Amino acid sequence: MRWLGENRLQVNLHEYPPREISGARLVFVPVTPQRAGWVSWEERERYAVVYPCSGVLADGSDPRAVPAALGPLLGDARARVLALLDSPMSTTQLCAVTGQGLGSVGRHLRVLLDAGLVRRGRAGRSVLYTRTAAGEVLVRAG
């Protein structure tokens, strides 16, 4: 996907005719794992540009970095998920921040839920996860 200038966006290399979307609703949807982008539309009212995420949205200076002792105990990827949950996050947000796939994040959350280290709750349509008191103790002890 690339910006062509003059209000033009090329989504892929297919030879589809250009579409005029002035006044339509346009939504950008990042997805994991890495796959080619595509476009979806519903008549002339709604369009979605679906594109693969690239990179990790958090740099190495994150104050919620994984404590050194926690990685060997839980595994680095699972410990990273637990460390990030100091505020409520959805699985989609965790995927974006960690760079892990949806299945991996889901498995980590299941293990952390079963261990009583995180809890989940609904906020509208979203399911949000956050650390429990036991999860706090583990992250702070590290």
From TrEMBL:
Keyword Transcription regulation in record: yes
Record's keyword terms, sorted: DNA-binding, Transcription, Transcription regulation
> What InterPro entries does the record point to?
ArsR-like_HTH, HTH_ArsR_DNA-bd_dom, Metal_resp_trans_reg, WH-like_DNA-bd_sf, WH_DNA-bd_sf
**Molecular functions (GO terms):** DNA binding; DNA-binding transcription factor activity
Q: Which domain of life is it from?
A: Bacteria
Q: Where is the HTH arsR-type domain?
A: 68-140
Q: Does the keyword Endoplasmic reticulum apply?
A: no
A Pfam family of the record is HTH_20
**Alphabetical list of SUPFAM superfamilies matching this protein:** Winged helix' DNA-binding domain (SSF46785)
PANTHER family reported in the protein's UniProt record: ARSENICAL RESISTANCE OPERON REPRESSOR ARSR-RELATED (PTHR43132), HTH-TYPE TRANSCRIPTIONAL REPRESSOR CZRA (PTHR43132:SF6)
From the Swiss-Prot or TrEMBL record, give the protein name: HTH arsR-type domain-containing protein
